[in-house]
Amino acid sequence: MLEAMTVKDIQRIATEVADSWADVNWVASTDSTNTQLLASGTPGSVLIADEQTAGKGRMGREWVSPAGSILALSVLVDAPTADNLGLASLAAGLAVTDVVPEAELKWPNDALLSGKKFAGILSEADIAGDTRRVVVGIGINVYWRAEDLPVAGATSLNLEGIQINFDEFTIDLLRALATRLEQWQTGDEKLLEDYRAVCSTIGKTVRLERHGDDVEGTVDDVTAAGEILIDGTAYSAGDVTHLRPAN
């Protein structure tokens, strides 16, 4: 039987990351950590949940978050401007590879092990008047049985031979998130330099699926705005429904 993964000592986690995150909370279950932080959080807030009953992925897709098998958390930060908001998601993806160095990133922010997805990220912005906030949600599959994985092409840390201490891993991830999101906020060029180094999509021939308009070509680069550059043309993540290897 697999051991349920959960926070053991939220106070210790909060203390260890207090220099970066002022308000760290844990709940057994919630609809969506992103939704809750956008509704009531302040910049510097963190919400960790054992279970999300309405977890969200890109394009409104469901993110399955059963209790005991996933690390689900969201952080709320100030956005420096209304531009380049998409880079926050890339920064979060890079933070995942900081704590799981065996991983690589599929543009924009799918974290892969052995070519299979084990983590997903969703950033949502709250831009109104003088308010500029971004919530970044991360779901990491930490402990699953292979037969219970929600979709084909998914994996988890334990299935890839990676064992973690849940609290220590959470602390490390929050520290990495603080570093990478600060790089985004300050425009540090090292963010994209490091992202390009772990992005396995660069150099691949891909089919980019948009709403009724598919594009095939070779990925040249990821731009300073976090867009994918295919045969000299840039596409933003918000315009893309799927990115697949070209047939």
Automatic annotation (TrEMBL):
Keywords tagged on the record: Ligase
Protein name in UniProt: Biotin--[acetyl-CoA-carboxylase] ligase
InterPro entries found in the cross-reference section: aa-tRNA-synth_II/BPL/LPL, Biotin_CoA_COase_ligase, BPL_LPL_catalytic
Limits of the BPL/LPL catalytic domain: 19-185
GO CC annotations on file: cytoplasm
Domain of life: Bacteria
EC number, as in UniProt: 6.3.4.15
Record lineage: Bacteria, Bacillati, Actinomycetota, Actinomycetes, Mycobacteriales
Pfam families associated with the record: BPL_LplA_LipB (PF03099)
Gene Ontology molecular function: biotin--[biotin carboxyl-carrier protein] ligase activity
